[in-house]
Amino acid sequence: MTSVRPIALLLLLALHLACSNPDSAGQDPRADPPLPEGLEPAVRAALEAARGGDAGDLARLYHANKLFAHARRSYEKASESDPDEGEWPYLLGAMELNRGHPREAAVALETATRRSPDYLPAWIRLGRAHLDIGNIDAARRAFEEATRLAPGSPWPLLGLGRVARTEDNPARAIEHLQRAIQIEPQLRTAHYLLAQIYREVGDTERSTRSLSAFRDSGADPELQDPWLRAVEQRELGDQSILKEAAAALVAGDLSGAERRYVDVLTRHPEDYGALLNLGIVYFAQRRLDAAERQFRRTIDLRADDPHGHHALARCLLATSRVDEARTHLREVVRLDPGNREAADLLSQIGSSTP
Fold this sequence. Notes:
CATH superfamily of the largest domain: Tetratricopeptide repeat domain
Number of strands: 0
Largest sheet: none
Oligomer: single chain
Structural class: mainly alpha
Radius of gyration: 21 Å
C-alpha cells in the first residue's frame, strides 16, 4: 500500500464533491419530476418502487444517489407535511452545504435548529454555512450553542477556532483548536489549522510540529450524525463504489481507490468528483502527467468550480510551472474568496519559484 501522507494537503480539496443535476423546469413543484435517462437499473428500480410513497424516504434515496433537484423537492414536501420535524430541513441544508450552496443551506438549517434544537449536527453545519457566507456573528452563535449542547465534543471548538481565525484573533483560535485536540488527538483538520496559524504568527517550530501531527493523523473522526447516516445507507450502484473509493483514498490504499474510480468513469466519464479524485490518486503516485490531465478535464467540465483549479495549481507547482500555477490560484481566490489555503499558497509563491 502506498502512503498518501506526503500529499495530505491536497486530499483536503475533495472527497465530498458531488455532481449536481439541473432542476426540471415547468413541473408541478409538488409532483415527482420525471426520472432522468441513463440511471443505473438498480437505482431506477428502487426509485420507481419508492415514488408516490413517503416523501422523506424518497428524498433520502434521491439525495444518496445525487439526484439533487428531485431530493430538494421531496425534502420540501416532507417538511411541509410534518412542520414539527427537524430531520427534513436538516438533510436539505446538509445537502446544499455539501454542494457549495451555503446561503440555501443556512435557511434550511435555521429551520432545523428551531424544530430540533437538541440535534448537535444541525448547529455544527449551521455554523459552517454562516462561516462560508461570512456571517461571523451568526457562525459564532451556532458553534457556541453546539458547545453548550456537547461540551465534550471537539467539533464546536473546531468551528470556534475557525471563527477566531477569520476575525484575525490567532490567540483565541489556538486556544479553541488546542482544546479540540485535547478531546480528539486525531482531529487532523485542527492540526492543519494550527500549523497555518502558527506559521502566520511566525512560530515556525510549532507550525512544523502541528504539520507533522497533521500528516501522522488518519482521516478525521466522523461527526455522529444518525440522520445523514440514514441517507448514506440508501446509496446504490456507483454511489456505493465512489464511497468505497473515497475511503480507500483516505486510508492510503491508492491502488484500490484508482481501481474504483476508473470503474465508475468507464460508465460515467464526466463524473466530476471521480475525475478530480482520480487525479489526486495519480498525484499521490507521482504520476504527474496523468494527474494534470485529470485536473484539466475537471476544469473543462466546471470552469467555475475552485477545486479543479486548486488541484491543478498544486500539480503545476510540483513541476515548477509557477506562472501557470499562480494563474489558477488567483482563479481559486476569485471563485472562493474565503479559501485561506489558496490565498496563503499564492502569497508564498509570490513572483518567484518557491
